[in-house]
Design brief:
Blueprint: H1 7-25, H2 35-44, H3 57-61, H4 64-80, E1 83-90, E2 93-100, E3 115-117, H5 122-128, H6 133-141, H7 156-169, E4 172-175, E5 182-190, E6 196-205, H8 211-228
Antiparallel strand pairs: 1-2, 1-6, 2-3, 4-5, 5-6
Helix pairs in contact: 1-2, 4-8, 5-7
Amino acid sequence: MQRRDDPEDKEFIATLAKGLAVLGAFGRQRPAMTLSEVCRAEWSNVFPVPRILDFGFAYLSTQSWIDRALPLMREVSERLGESCSAAILQGNDIVYVARVPARRIMSAALSVGSRLPALHTALGRILFGFLDEAEIWRRLKSQRIEAYTPQTITDLQALYDRIRADHEQQFAIVDEELERGLRALAVPVVDRSGEAVGAINLSTHSTRTTRNEMRQQFLPELKRISDQVPSTTV
């Protein structure tokens, strides 16, 4: 049995405190962090021992909609035989926060925590639409637009117009812009204040499902899920 002043025990406590500090740094305004941000959080978010009991509440509270969405995502993925995912927007990327892969796997091996360029994904485009005009343009101009396939939209004005149009119709379709053969349709998950806390999508292969079939089959299913899991966070 270790004594209280055992160096190994002190090292464990110090490591635990750092871990708790990192978890306490998460919240609605920062639901995901880069490695460098995590390192800074170790030193800027140290808190007293009594807060150990609620160290993860700030982060977990942002995940309530994901917990409610996952069973519905699994059900629709199994029934349609397609992958269903949820993501949040972080800078110019989307970060996957939930994923139910279909048995028919695409070439990209995605999992929770994976990042993709937001502008060329349905999840990212629908979330970009909730930014104001100036912020959309700032982000468009702040990055190098890469053509991943011949279908990739690289013109800034065309991208802006597509983002605004998708926002108006409240769903986005991206057709083979990120990967040949990959089509996806996404809808936002909106909280009670009208802000998007994330988005969910269904993805398919272009040989299996047409764009019209996606609108007819995928869109009602995703809207049903998003309507049932609005965030109560304010």
